[in-house]
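Our preliminary data section would be incomplete without showing what the modeling component actually yields. Below, a chain of 245 amino acids is followed by its predicted structure, encoded as tokens that our downstream tools consume directly.
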Amino acid sequence: MKTESFSLHIAICDDNVGDRKQLERLLQRESDKRADSTGVIYVDSYGSIYAATRSPMIYDAFFIDMISGDITGDKLALRLREMGVSAPIILCVSSIDYRAVFSSLPGEDEKNNILFLDKPIKKTELSDLLNHITSLKSQIPSAIELRGETVTRYVKEDDIIYAKTNGNYIDVYLKDGSCINVRSTLENFYSHLEAYTHYHSASLTSMVNIVHVKKASLTRLTLLDGTILHTSPIYSMGIKRALRR
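Predicted structure:
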């Protein structure tokens, strides 16, 4: 039976050099075993939270144990979730009992897909976790990066309500009521969203997520939050067809 290939890109964030190197070796052995089946494992190893949070969206999983400094492993896990990371986070339990920490936050670990692994790490437990991560990879929706002048957000498809041109920027309006100003043309911004099916052009200067459209007429769109977007028949007809589908 053919096995679908899902190579994994994993980040290790551990301030214990010896533990970090040991996990690297264990993951390399797992990668060698899986190369001809589910795919290889690529590993980036960090001893600093700042390096680990620089480009977090590229990773399929995080193995974390930070025990010194103000930001310990549990706080780093929650910070990654706040940044929009949806990949599994595995907290490796050593001197900090992460299970006890998260037991004081009822349901937080299950809700945020935060898992636990005891140190010293056993090969069989690590292998089982990697199987779980591989099975999850195809189910995790990719995030959309919105890079503003001072902030970068990672959002899901339906977090975006609409976007419109504002000079050299695109104003992207989100479901939580915020707005991100992205330096781009509407054409270029829209081209990066071609893989998503909910976005449609509303005019030469705006686009809309159709799941947020309450009513579409020939000349305007009424959104669920009450926003009115001006459109024209050539655009509204396409939006109406998409709504029917």
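The helical segments are 17-34, 49-52, 73-82, 98-103, 108-111, 123-137, 186-191, 233-244. The chain is about 30% helix and 30% strand. Preliminary results of this kind motivate Aim 1 of the renewal.
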